[in-house]
Design brief:
The protein is of the alpha+beta class and about 775 residues long. About 45% of the residues lie in helices and about 15% in strands. The radius of gyration is 37 Å and the shape is flat. The relative contact order is 0.07.
């Protein structure tokens, strides 16, 4: 053997000698298993690249195939030189990993995936044993999991399905390898003639297992409870490097819309206030004119602006307005911004919004921007921590956050919000002790308009027999009344110098955003602080990706009401919307099932969804009433308890009998698809198994037993005459011998004789009635 020169070094020479003297490992001889494992790893690599929207690992696919081919050719050699080179390569990959880790300390998922891919390529050059193939399987599974966390669209779905289809034959081949089975010899096994050399089972069988696994997986996915995640406090942030150097300049802390520049006033051409691009909501500006621009999104084509992963749905708040101008709203303290800086080594901002809630729950949201947006940062109410790439952000007096530049596509940031609990009883006792700063800005209203609106509001409140005495109940009732009394109208007349609120009440309705304006001013007229807030609805939930798809058409305004010691709470008077946005108190562990149905129902016509809702409602009502009446009957008296217990026992007995009959039907169906000799042998094994169950004999044919081993096990049971007699064993031996000659010797059996013997065995094993004995 020719050794490389470096083996002459003392340390390497002893190590080389030790490796050369070790026994050769037992190699994995299944080509099919090696190929399928390699395909599994390639799927994981491709899924990672697609999930991260990169091509960082394309090189790994051909190199991995080359390594697999080389390791197969060299599987009988010690490959000592190759092992040294692989070790050196792994050390280099580890050094690269640590360098890459320091550069991407905030999100290490892609860094870890890249390390695993590099190790897998190196490892593919040395795969002599099945245990090493198991390592590659685990790498493929980890890569698929990393890809699942990176992917935000359904592009990940096909990879999961293909991964599952590939994993099934791998599990079968790996199981055969663990049991020590040799690869299938198609020349000797007639039953394997229908199989492909690369498949351990026939295609119909694999297809059946794949379908069952997929259906069960979807059911588990829908029923599995979703508990709050995000236990790590280092959360996703990603964008281009340009964001990491952007700061606020002198006087440029206003609102910036893409393609429009900074706007400190209504702006825009032809009276389009703050529209900029067609997809930007008109309400995301310092001032909004609701008389001229109330249509807001009427000319917009639906477009996804961001994808949100959140522990709970909610209203993605953008900004609030405190001053009513008659024609719209403006931010009166837009220049009073607080600049917040983050440390250079972290993306974390600590935010302290005004008027924090007394009782709240922490909700974590991750936003991925998919189209250019203003420099306003959407988030659930009361953000406490923000992970954002710019060195600084700004916070306005209303608790809204701003970035130095507009939000660009592919920007990802994370927000931790302390969302207030909506405790109706506690909010009803909040009182009306408002501090001066709240009263100054959020009770401001023109005296004439206040007198007019107070009369309208008191007339509404007087229409209910139950008086509303506290601000929370008043806000809730007025929001509901506006929904019911007024309609959305887009063709009402507008007069010069008109007022949005007066025009709305005069015309019996108005544009969608007018409802919240009327509610806000109506509450102010009653001495309840309120403001107008613009943002996005939750969006459309995708149950497969777990993201909320938020479109430009999801933007609207609602009313926020202040309650002392509790903070701001939202109310939505717009027809077709809930009275208040869903929030953390509406969280359900099994809410994905409901959201999945909502997603499916969104694709169905309204009559179909209404019919389904009516049918399921009727079924649920019937079952609920039936269970309630049954429980009342069995718990009401001793006779009811006895009848209920007897009925339960009878139902259990019928279920057991039905299960036994179903097992028989399933076996008959399976036997019909088998060759005649195979069918006779299977029927014999089934009959003997049933006899064993009746007679409490623990003998059953296991998959790893050969037919002769099974027959020998039966023969050992003859020691007790009540188990199996000699006539039974003679038939078993005859059928077993014929089956072995047919399967392994390609001999044609005498089917007629074997059928007669099987019939005789059926009579011998049939349960016999007990005979009465006389004294």
């Amino acid at each position: 053997m020719n050794h490389p020169p470096f083996k002459r070094l003392p340390l390497l020479a002893s190590l080389w000698t030790r490796l050369a003297n070790t026994p050769l490992p037992v190699t994995e001889e299944s080509i099919a298993l090696r190929i399928w494992v390699q395909v599994l790893v390639v799927i994981g690599i491709m899924a990672t690249d697609v999930g991260a929207s990169t091509q960082m690992s394309v090189w790994a696919i051909p190199f991995s195939f080359v390594g697999t081919f080389w390791s197969w050719q060299r599987r009988k050699h010690r490959n000592i030189t190759a092992k040294f080179l692989i070790a050196i390569g792994m050390l280099a990959a580890l050094a690269y990993f640590f360098g890459n880790l320091l550069a991407n300390i905030n999100d290490t998922r892609l860094v870890l995936a890249e390390l695993l891919i590099q190790l897998q390529v190196l490892h593919s050059f040395d795969l002599p044993r099945r245990q090493d193939l198991g390592y590659s399987m685990v790498i493929g599974l980890i890569l698929l999991g990393v890809a699942g966390t990176l992917n935000e669209t359904l592009a990940f779905g096909p990879f999961v399905i293909v991964f599952l289809a590939v994993a099934l034959p791998i599990l079968c081949l790996d199981y055969r390898s663990r049991l020590g089975f040799a690869p299938v010899d198609r020349r000797r096994s007639p039953a394997s003639q229908e199989r492909s050399p690369l498949l351990p089972l026939r295609l119909p069988q694999l297809g059946l297992f794949f379908g069952i696994t997929l259906i069960l997986g979807l059911v588990v996915f829908a029923l599995m409870p979703r508990f709050p995640g995000y236990q790590l406090q280092t959360l996703p942030v990603s964008t281009s490097e340009a964001f990491e150097y952007e700061r606020f300049g002198d006087g440029n802390r206003g609102i910036i819309n893409p393609g429009q520049g900074e706007t400190d006033a209504t702006g825009g051409e032809d009276g389009e206030a703050g529209v900029g691009e067609a997809m930007i909501y008109y309400g995301f500006n310092r001032e909004i004119n609701q008389l001229q621009n109330s249509s807001g999104v009427k000319a917009q084509e639906p477009k996804v602006l961001m994808r949100v992963r959140s522990q709970a749905p909610g209203f993605w708040r953008v900004l609030s307005f405190d001053h009513y101008t008659g024609e719209g709203w403006e931010i009166s303290r837009d220049e009073q911004l607080t600049t917040i800086n983050r440390p250079a080594w972290s993306y974390r901002f600590y935010v302290t919004p005004p008027d924090p809630p007394m009782i709240s729950r922490q909700v974590i949201q991750t936003f991925t921007i998919t189209a250019p947006m203003p420099n306003l940062i959407p988030a659930l109410s009361h953000p406490s921590t923000l992970y954002f790439p710019t060195p600084e952000i700004a916070l306005d007096p209303e608790g809204s956050m701003r970035a130095p530049i507009p939000l660009a596509a592919d920007l990802t940031y994370t927000v931790i919000s302390n969302v207030p609990d909506r405790d109706r009883t506690a909010l009803g006792k909040a009182g009306t002790d408002y501090r001066a700063a709240i009263a100054k800005y959020y009770l401001e209203i023109d005296p004439d308009l206040a007198k007019f609106l107070r009369a309208e509001a008191e007339a509404m409140l007087a229409s209910t027999p139950n008086p509303r005495r506290n601000p929370y109940e008043i806000a809730l009732f007025l929001a509901q009344e506006l929904k019911q009394r007024y309609v959305i109208a887009t063709d009402y007349p507008i007069f010069p110098g008109d007022d949005v609120v007066r025009a709305f009440l005069r015309n019996g309705g108005g544009y969608p955003d007018h409802f919240s304006t009327v509610l806000t001013m109506m509450l102010r007229s009653l001495g309840i602080p309120a403001r107008l807030t613009a943002g996005f609805g939750s969006g459309q939930f995708n149950p497969f990706t777990g993201f909320y798809l938020v479109r430009n058409t999801d933007a609207f305004v609602l009313t926020e009401v202040y309650f002392p010691q509790h903070g701001w709470y939202s109310f939505d008077p717009m027809p077709g919307h809930d009275l208040y946005p869903v929030s953390v108190e509406d969280y359900e562990a099994f809410g994905v099932l409901r959201q999945f149905w909502d997603w499916v129902a969104g694709w169905l016509p309204s009559p179909v969804t209404a019919a389904f809702a009516m049918v399921w409602g009727a079924i649920a009502t019937f079952l609920g009433q039936a269970i309630e009446r049954f429980w009342a009957f069995i718990s009401g008296s001793a006779i009811g308890f006895l009848l209920g217990t007897s009925g339960a026992i009878a139902c259990g007995l019928l279920a057991w009998l039905g299960w036994q009959r179903l097992r028989g039907w399933v076996m008959v169906y399976r036997w019909r698809r088998l060759p005649p000799m195979e069918r006779i042998y299977r029927q014999m094994v089934w009959m003997l198994t049933m006899v064993g169950e009746r007679r409490a004999i623990k003998i059953r044919k296991h998959r790893h037993q050969t037919p002769q081993e099974y027959a020998d096990g039966l023969r050992s049971a003859i020691a007790h005459p009540s188990h199996y007699d000699l006539a039974t064993m003679a038939i078993v031996d005859a059928i077993t011998a014929a089956y072995g000659q047919w399967r392994y010797g390609d001999q044609t059996p005498d089917l007629a004789t074997l059928e007669a013997q099987l019939h005789q065995l059926r009579r011998l094993t049939r349960p016999q009635p007990r005979r009465k004995t006389t004294a």
